Amino acid sequence: MADSGPGGKQFARARAWGCLSRRQAFVMAAVGSVYLVAMVLVLALGAGPQPEVALVMLWPVLAHFALAAFYVFDVDVATRWLGKVPTASAGAVWAFWLARHLVSLPLVGERPYDAVAEGIYVGRWPIRFPSEFPAHCPNVVDLTAELPARADVIRGRRYACVPALDCTMPLPGALIAAAATVGGWPGGVYVHCANGHGRSACFAALLMVLRGESATWRAAVEQMKTVRPLVSVHGTQAALMDDVEASMRAAGMLPPLAAEGAVPAASPAVAAVEMAERERDAGAGSD
């Protein structure tokens, strides 16, 4: 996928060759190996209708080994291969992530979603709807490439799909365009990835900066952690987010940061209090 945004190729390589991508590749290869061993055992032991069983088990073997290769070489090709597009078609191997989602995430004990700022909710892919979705939220942003959009979640709501694999991020151009669009939507926004920890937190942080609720995306993430402690941004994601924020400031989409050491202007309320205190002190000195 070509990306016209600044640093697109650089960060595509960073994501592909980063240590987290290699770790994800190892996980995918391990899962594929388990399916491969199971398939061989089924054939060797003669259990069940062998051709049919082998054919069924061959698909997850190929899918996971392919994903392992994509994590190492080109995660953006993997995103397209999974079939997740802005119109929210289902990914080719989403069922395997869904099984993990249903089994492991409820054991963590984390809330499905949290309000991280006024009108901004960060959470996981809504396993159970509507109980795991903020009521009356009219907007949804989906950053998963591995899970399908739920029809009942997006029905009657504005929906933006900016797909990326786990532990990665969309390319800068797509991320900036989506943030600019969603930032103009009225009403609350539910931002989700698979777990509600990395991809969704990064996008929500960008929204918080756009809305003036945080000075930088890094400050926004720290604010999120006070209500959603498992929020975690990996190194390659952070590098891309730094680039995106700098590009948006250079383009005038975000206000420039205050110079280091500069004293920020006081709010009108604070200024009024300070003026009243000065007048009181002046009056006390003249007595």
* End-to-end C-alpha gap: 75 Å
Q: Which structural category fits the helices and strands?
A: alpha/beta
Sheet with most strands = 5 strands, mixed
Tally of DSSP helical segments: 11
Number of domains: 2
Strand content range: 5-15%
Question: What is the CATH architecture term of the largest domain?
Answer: Alpha-Beta Complex
Average pLDDT: 75
CATH topology of the largest domain: Protein-Tyrosine Phosphatase, Chain A
Helix and strand string, N-terminal first? HHHHHEEEHEHEHHHH
Instruction: Please tell me how large the radius of gyration is.
Output: 23 Å
Low-confidence region ranges:
1-20, 88-92, 260-273, 283-287
Net shape: globular
Helix content: 40-55%
- CATH homology group of the largest domain: Protein tyrosine phosphatase superfamily
State the CATH class of the largest domain: Alpha Beta
The strand line-up of the biggest sheet is 1-2-5-3-4
Report the strand count: 5
Topology, element by element:
Elements lengths: L7 H10 L1 H27 L4 H24 L1 H7 L12 H15 L4 E5 L2 E4 L15 E6 L6 H4 L3 E7 L7 H12 L5 E4 L6 H12 L6 H9 L9 H16 L17 H19 L1
Parallel strand pairs: 2-5, 3-4, 3-5
Antiparallel strand pairs: 1-2
Helix pairs in contact: 1-3, 2-3, 3-4, 7-8, 7-10, 8-9
Task: Describe the model.
The chain has 287 residues and is α/β, with parallel strands linked by helices. It has 11 helices and 5 strands; from the N terminus they run αααααβββαβαβαααα. Strands 1-2-5-3-4 form a 5-stranded mixed sheet.
What can be said about this structure in brief?
By secondary structure, this protein is α/β, with parallel strands linked by helices. About 55% of the residues lie in helices and about 10% in strands.
